[in-house]
Amino acid sequence: MNKGALIGAMVTAAATIVAAVITAVAVGGDDRPAAQPGPAASTQPSATAPSRSKSPPASQPVQSLPAQNPAPEVSANPRIEANPDSGAVGSVVTLTGSGFASGERVRITFYGSYSADWDLRDVTASSDGGFVAEIKVPATYADDQQKSVEARGLDSDKRADTPFTVTE
Fold it and tell me: Which residue(s) pair with 168 in the sheet?
């Protein structure tokens, strides 16, 4: 068995599958004609398997990526995550948010017990609607009760919150 031919056949099979998936995603639903898939590759070694060459054989069509990548999809629902999700008063927490408008000011608020809340800071969402910010856990009831951290878009009024427990 020729290892080079087997590896070449496996690489060709994997490339054909990846190209078919990329084509299916890129062509999705507009009026452009769909690209025709190339011939199916065999995973069985062949005595006549082609050797590695710099260009594909003329019988196989070359598949390529679209000229422009589609814009990334922005979530309609904002999200926020705290890391870690618990900590003592004064500890630093990293908040990661997404789903806000590009360039929007986002207010971060800590909601404590008994309807007490603290506006901690405002941040500006990046061009993709996300942000990363650090906060310090405010001095509040250190009662091992679950609180929450909220991010609210000041223009869109989109809101997201995440649970947080203040430890002693």
Answer: none
- CB contact at 8 A, 117 and 63: no
* Residues 43/5, Cβ–Cβ less than 8 Å: no
Q: What is the value of pTM for the model shown? A: 0.54
Contact 27, 68 (CB under 8 A): no
Q: What CA–CA distance (Å, rounded) separates 150 from 160?
A: 6
Ordered alpha helix ranges (H), the chain: 3-27
pLDDT of residue 117: 79
Backbone angles phi, psi at 153, to 5 degrees: -70, 125
Contact 102, 125 (CB under 8 A): yes
d(CA 52, CA 75): 44
